[in-house]
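Might I ask for a little of your time on a matter of protein folding? Here, with my thanks, is the record as I have it:
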Amino acid sequence: MSWPLVERRRAVRSADPSGHLEQLARANELLLSLQKMAVTLSSSLDVDEVIQRGVENARRVVSADTIIVALRDITNHAWSIVAGPDAVVGSDGVTEGSPALRCLDNDRPVESETGTLWLEAGHGVYQSLRARGQTLGFIGAEWTVGQRPTVAEREAIVGVADALALALDNANIFSRLAERVAQDERSRVARELHDRVSGSLAAIGFELDDLARGADVDTRARITRVREHVGSTIADIRGLLDDLRADRDGRTLDATSVRELTDRMSSRSGIDVEVDHRIDAVDILHDLAADGTATEIHLIMREALLNVERHSGARTLHLALFLRDEEVVVRIRDDGRGFDPSLRGHGISGMRERAEWIGAILDIDSGPSGTTVEIRLSLTERRA
């Protein structure tokens, strides 16, 4: 619909005492807004940005007091409210039997005056978000008591939902492609390390063994020390290969993934590792994995374990992961020789940078009786 047509209809409003052309003009403006939204909304490939734009555009075409977007996890079918008033975002407001869920069985918007997601609302209109035959979630517009949508606004919700579902589907596809590219790159690097670097070091080790057999005692001792360094480097590379090839590594903080990481470290080093994983809240683990926060925490943990393995001389290590006062806490404690935390190497600097990137706090306390590394991530600030 073109702008001139909008202007022509505005010009004849005064000659329309019954108000039909006024309603038509309003519907025309809504259609124009939906057209512009369909062009701009799907251009983003970031899910959070897509949702934000979808809510902003929905507010342009409906006069609702709040716009709510709820998404469904395709793996466990759990619902999460990702946009709306603070009181409902992240809550368990979408429960089985919720009137809003009736929209999943309809092609048209579903209205309800009971069971609104926002407690201050007295009327809601809900439309499912579908793309390529899959239900991604729904979008809802809710009005406070005494307010109701117009016919044009109910129709506009359909257009908003169509554009938002398309944009979300595009963003999800892009995310999966990016993940696949990253996985392929990790596999390529792993092959290079195995075929070139690790193989070359192994050959050097064999040559050193030959030299040692024909050398005098002092020379043999020096060659043996070099041979031990080469063997240690090969072990480090093998550990890195394990991490690169582990499909779950860095993806999540669930008990299985954390234990896979510590088991690899323990099998390489012989350090006795105890894991105390006490986060059972699936929604928290899912949220941390969804935006990459879990990956960053996992990499901080891995660097801390590598430091213990390489430098501490520790015999035991205890890793705890738990919730405390609306914080996710990871604590790694060893009984090694300790070090001066102020003498930063690249590893510790990288750990601090990763923590700062995700808004976490990293504390390191070290002394002669061992080292404690603690990561604290505020869940309250993440919801703000």
